[in-house]
Amino acid sequence: MLRNMTNPLRNTATARLSALANQLVPTSQPIVASNTLSYQPATFPTNSSFSHPPQRYQQHNQQQHPSRSYSTMSQANQAAHPLTMIPGPIEFDDEVLAAMSHPAVPHTSPTFIKIFQESLQLLRKLFFSTDPNAQPFILAGSGTIGWDVVGANLIEAGDAALVLNTGYFSDSFADALEVYGAKVDNLKGPQIGSKPSLEQIEAALKAKTYKIITITHVDTSTGVLSDVEAISKLVKSVSPQTLVVVDGVCSVAVEPIKFDDWKVDFVLTGSQKGLATPSGLSVLFASAQALDVVKNRKSPSGSYFASIPRWLPIMQAYESGKGAYFATPAVQNVYALLASLRQFATSSEQLEERFAKHAATSDYVKDTLAKAGLKTVSVDRESSAHGMTAVYLPEGISNADLLPLVLKKNVALAGGIHKEIVSKYFRVGHMGISATTPSLGHIDTALNAILEALKELGYTY
Amino acid sequence: MLRNMTNPLRNTATARLSALANQLVPTSQPIVASNTLSYQPATFPTNSSFSHPPQRYQQHNQQQHPSRSYSTMSQANQAAHPLTMIPGPIEFDDEVLAAMSHPAVPHTSPTFIKIFQESLQLLRKLFFSTDPNAQPFILAGSGTIGWDVVGANLIEAGDAALVLNTGYFSDSFADALEVYGAKVDNLKGPQIGSKPSLEQIEAALKAKTYKIITITHVDTSTGVLSDVEAISKLVKSVSPQTLVVVDGVCSVAVEPIKFDDWKVDFVLTGSQKGLATPSGLSVLFASAQALDVVKNRKSPSGSYFASIPRWLPIMQAYESGKGAYFATPAVQNVYALLASLRQFATSSEQLEERFAKHAATSDYVKDTLAKAGLKTVSVDRESSAHGMTAVYLPEGISNADLLPLVLKKNVALAGGIHKEIVSKYFRVGHMGISATTPSLGHIDTALNAILEALKELGYTY
Lengths: 461, 461
Description:
Two copies of one chain form a homodimer.
Chain A lengths: L9 H14 L33 H6 L20 E2 L9 H7 L9 H17 L8 E6 L4 H10 L5 E6 L2 H12 L3 E6 L9 H10 L4 E5 L1 E2 L4 E2 L2 H11 L4 E5 L11 H4 L3 E5 L10 E6 L1 H8 L12 H12 L11 H14 L3 H24 L16 E5 L6 H10 L2 E2 L12 E5 L3 H4 L5 H15 L5
Helix pairs in contact in A: 1-16, 3-12, 4-12, 5-6, 7-8, 14-16
């Protein structure tokens, strides 16, 4: 292992990396407040004028939520901890975490109905949707349950599904659909890190009638970003009856999804990535066309808990301000989701600001890593996610070398998960407050930790 | 409505209720510290030597958990709020709520693996199980997902299921099993509030071979308690291949379940009742026999997310101290579950104390209501749950009269949910700290609120 070698190149490598660090001083880079890449631990200020103790959340919540800028996001109430810079779960704002400690409230009480109602209403804004016949859903569960909801409700045994496959999570989505009887065709790009072309997709849609097409908006295993707008519009022009289903687990609230305009039929996501809320919620958005398909099924829904027919009246009731019961929602997690949505989903402008901040941070991360000679798994910038980066390890350095060393520098990264390249790359998350609030120092801390650790491992380029 | 009447009986009623209240002074009742039934708001002390601020939970957690008695349970960190005295979600201890605000931690990090591992280990203690081939599971989701896990894994299309039906939740469990192809026979007692007899069950088991028998340990719609021990032992003597499946949503951690001794095969529950943790977790426990049935299925599991074959290696990995990934667990909710389990599930003695406290509180609640002339839905004390009470409304008083009036006295109760008697009864929860820690005053506050409200509505008996 390089770590244990007395490497004659190390001094040279150190000198080169120092030179690189100097080149990288982001003098005109607005997204990162820190003006050096010298290693700085994440800041955990002990006081913040905005933060409030968690136990007072309920009272706070009864007031109008104050307008809040990203610069006031805070972790002042949190114990010092290694930065979670994986592609979800991510670092949380104090206010969101505080909402997780909301005292007991009955799940069908007027108090909680208002919270659930506002959460559903803000999900409509999040997806830029004004169609009253589209419907948001919030279920207790992992994001993965969204795949069951798709399989159990939009698929009947023998239905054809076209899976646009950009990595491990596309494979898994296909597996989930097959549990519910789908006949799956996978469409891939020419290599790992690429995506199928619009020409491939058009040809596939013309060759066969598909009940659904699935797009993994960002495949968390590769960091590949798909062009949902172009694909969805293509589908609706070539095969309008095919439902466009978007796995937005690693994209929602980081990448824009203009649900109505793009004619998307279904989006599924989890709470712990772009939604910047602890894991434990499955968030879904269904078009009128998708709900019609469910309504006109020949066979009943293939799941009890993941049944759209069972949840639809519940969500409609909550959204209209009435209580209804099918299964107990994750009350505290919904409070946290609402606290987060209020921070960024109350208007289009707020959302566009959020997307722009994520894009700028992503460019900064990718530029910095590229200048250090590191290659992303995604083949080009246009195919790259804005909330995470999958990075090939330099030759001779393994995750077993790198990740523990980075963790010693207070930063947790994720290893690989794509089966064919699992040991060859690592993943960095840059979503939520880490991406939007440079004063917290998360991004520079993570980049510095990576570059310093590589240097210590003798990396040069 | 009685509320709006100038009722000549009211003065008499008041006098009688006052006399009743005097009779009820629980002079030798150890479970309730308060020695009068005069109305007292719930206490929310502003200071407690044990409580600690939520934001320091992580540090606290790294230390050995101190031994803690029920008398130190506290809500000092919580904003004043109406008491949630419904049969789940319930009132929470500060320490459990604080754990919900745990800062971000990667779901496969050594830090979180230890938390998940200890949670699984304590679930074994909770179920008095030492069989290494039995397996606890913790999934993100509502308790309801447990029904899908049973249906999708223990049932194959056409399998016969015997549902011991004691109310609305037994009906729903049957519905869930039918989604997965079960042929369900329901066995009921002679009236609402009763349960099928052992003789009925034995006859049914002898008449037909059932793949599974389901017992709703406590049906939350009726408050009926079933005798899991007697039924399970009967099943294993009459039809040993039949799997004994217990819906423990409203019983686990309130009523004892001696999993190995009683030869139970599967228990499912949610986090928000006896486990005294916010809603959002599905907790399961499977016997070696149940896992063998899953392993030997002819068809694949009928669900993707609710698949035992997919989760089993994950739970085994976490429990043995290694990370594994299938779907992201609800990290913060698991921290909260562990905080709660540490309070009562570290030893048999601790558990027996918890059950005894719930039983004593339940007797006190039921005695008090009986002395006020109110009837429970459950037909006798032996068939009555210890964590909740379903109570018939007095003639002429509706939930629309009673519940808002009780809520004005700072206590939230639940209405009816059993379809045939929905408007005729209400439900009171008495689980967790409300039952174990009389110094918090929850039980007396709730009982006083009910009795005072009835008095104001002109009730006499």
